[in-house]
Amino acid sequence: MKTVVTRENERGTANHGWLKPAHYFSFGGWQDPNKIHFGALRVLNDDWIAGGGAFPTHPHDNMEIVTIPFTGALKHKDSTGGAGVIQAGDVQIMSAGTGVQHNEANESATEAVTLFQTWVFPKERNITPRYDQRTFNLKEREGKWQIVVSPREEDNALWINQDARFALTKIKAGNKISYENAFVGNGVYLVVINGAVEVDGVKYDKRDAVGIYDTNNFDIKVLEDAELLAVEVPMEF
Q1: What is the pLDDT of residue 36?
Q2: Of 46, 109, 100, 33, residue with least CA distance to 75
Q3: Residue 152's domain spans which residues?
Q4: Are 106 and 54 in contact (CB under 8 A)?
Q5: pLDDT value of position 77
Q6: What is the DSSP letter of 90?
Q7: CATH code where residue 68 lies
Q8: Residue 116 shares a structural domain with residue 172
Q9: pLDDT of the residue at 1
């Protein structure tokens, strides 16, 4: 098993007033040649959006974009005619494909939104753009992995144009949980949303992340009540 570690204080940050992001990989004005991507995972942004904050209309193409909100509500509208609102418990995916324009805005004028947004390189390029979102039962991730994004029909998740999988769990201190790859040879980017865990003898705290590869399974020891995100992606694509 090999690992690549990013601690919470090693992430790139910015302060745009209405937007305060933290970047696990090079993005925008923050560039680190040692943090470009992890396999097919190109972007993982930990965003804080102030009340009334909004991303103006902007384009994307040939990228799988997954948004996972934690607090507040984010509204969106895109050039395909799609529109909606996502909030805690929801997950949204956009296949940008041949090209799409969209905007995103905090639905509240006063309350902040917090979320993770990730970009994954697609398996097939230039597909027809598509949006999908779903509300997941938070209780179904307590003590076990809840698969929220996957191309596999048996996972009953939002479909992604890649051999990739997103899984979330909330687990109590003193427990252990294992992760088994859905696709042999993939790597897993594990993010500690809250709490503290140990993997292969190394402790990871809130907002720390570790990319794990050259293994198809690993164990996680939970040191403090934790909420985790596992993003499984091809290492070669």
Answers
A1: 96
A2: 109
A3: 138-233
A4: yes
A5: 87
A6: E
A7: 2.60.120.10
A8: no
A9: 97
Q: Which residues face 196 on adjacent strands? A: 224
Structure confidence by residue, pLDDT tens digits, 116-133: 999 999 999 999 999 999
Distance, in Å, from the CA atom of 97 to the CA atom of 128, rounded to the nearest integer, reads 6
**pLDDT at site 237:** 85
By the 8 A CB rule, do 119 and 42 touch?
Answer: yes
Looking at 135, 150, 185, the residue that finishes a domain is 135
CA pair distance 78, 82, nearest whole angstrom: 5
Q: In this structure, what token pair is assigned to residue 43? A: 């972007």
Average pLDDT of the segment spanning 188-200: 98
Q: Can you give the pTM of this predicted structure?
A: 0.97
Using alpha carbons, select from 42, 16, 17 the residue that is nearest to residue 29. Answer: 16
Is the domain of 143 the same as that of 222?
Answer: yes
Measure the CA angle with vertex 44, ends 40 and 49; round to 5°: 155
